[in-house]
Automatic annotation (TrEMBL):
InterPro entries: LysR-type_TF_proteobact-type, LysR_HTH_N, LysR_subst-bd, WH-like_DNA-bd_sf, WH_DNA-bd_sf. This is LysR family transcriptional regulator. Residues 5-63 form the HTH lysR-type domain. Keywords: DNA-binding, Transcription, Transcription regulation. PANTHER family: HTH-TYPE TRANSCRIPTIONAL REGULATOR (PTHR30537), TRANSCRIPTIONAL REGULATORY PROTEIN (PTHR30537:SF3). It comes from Sphingomonas sanguinis. PROSITE patterns: HTH_LYSR (PS50931). Belongs to the LysR transcriptional regulatory family. Transmembrane segments: none annotated. Pfam families: HTH_1, LysR_substrate.
Length: 301
């Protein structure tokens, strides 16, 4: 009985979907470009549904058939990667691979010292860090553990709330020294406000929290870039208090008027709780994020 296309073909299909070219997919998978091309041709022939990609000046463009198959191929790729991680060490060992999903800001600004301390104690751990502002699907095993800013609603997850990160408006002292004084929210109209560009959901969240905020003068959807702009003295923007408090040159702007809180949860699939390395990393994230939130509650003197 024909069992359909093998995983090798689907893996190449998923890689082409991600890379947008045969050459990019081949590099990602360690294949030659002709081999990747043969895999796609064989998959098309086996499925009998016509072409999966068309060529254009921008590379390979997926057809409607390819787009319909993409989510299932992604799920297969995630499951295969999870199998590799699971097999990387015995369940009772403090070695092997653990994949963590976190937002860009948490991953770049908060997790490095937490992971450094963890690896100093357990050098056999191998950490994969997935930085995305979209929630990873832990049931599909896109990641083993996740740091979430929205409460996980999926069943079969082990979830631990760790507190709320305070957000505030900040600017570099050099910017404030050369800019107009700020005594009330009305004064912000004379300043460069740093915010989002095309991320509609984030723009709505900011507008809901601070409806009187002026139009953004410096716009980017990359939150790490927003932080960099604030640090460079480009204007006023939102930062997590614990991050801002590390830099004495950053000054809180109208803290009583412009502040909000970002709740934090640590989550993993409940089936992983018996895997020692997963539980150890879960506990380290809970401890580290709790300490981060607590340490940021007051600016160091």
């Amino acid at each position: 009985m024909d069992s359909g296309p093998g995983w090798e073909l689907w893996r190449t299909f998923d890689a082409v979907m991600r890379a947008g070219s045969l050459s990019g997919a081949a590099r990602a998978l360690g294949l030659t470009q002709p081999t990747a091309g043969r895999h796609i041709a064989e998959l098309e022939a086996t499925l009998g549904a016509g072409a999966l990609f068309t060529r254009s000046a921008r590379g390979l463009q997926p057809t409607e058939t390819a787009l319909a198959l993409a989510s299932e191929a992604e799920a297969m790729a995630a499951a295969a990667a999870a199998l590799v991680r699971t097999a990387s060490a015995p369940a009772d060992a403090v070695t092997g691979v653990v994949r963590i999903s976190a937002s860009e800001v948490i991953g770049a600004e908060v997790l490095p010292p937490i992971l450094a301390a963890l690896r100093a104690k357990h050098s056999g751990l191998m950490i994969e860090l997935l930085l995305t502002n979209a929630p990873s699907d832990l049931l599909r095993r896109d990641a083993d553990l996740a740091i979430r800013m929205t409460e996980p609603r999926q069943q079969a997850l082990l979830v631990k709330p760790v507190g709320r990160i305070r957000l505030g408006f900040y600017a570099h002292r050099e910017y404030l020294a050369r800019a107009a004084s700020i005594d009330s929210a009305a004064d912000l109209g004379r300043h460069g406000i740093i915010g989002f560009d095309r991320d509609a959901a984030s723009i709505r969240s900011v507008e809901a929290a601070w409806p009187d905020l002026p139009t953004f003068a410096l716009r980017t959807d990359n939150q790490l870039a927003q932080i960099a702009l604030i640090r460079a003295g480009c204007g006023i923007g939102v930062m997590q208090d614990p991050i801002a408090h590390r830099d004495p040159a950053l000054i809180s702007v109208l803290p009583e008027t412009f502040h909000a809180h970002l709740p934090v949860w640590i989550a993993m699939h409940e089936d992983l709780r018996s895997t020692r390395r997963m539980r150890l990393v879960f506990d380290a994230l809970v401890s580290g994020m709790t300490a981060y939130i607590r340490a940021g509650s007051e600016r160091p003197q």
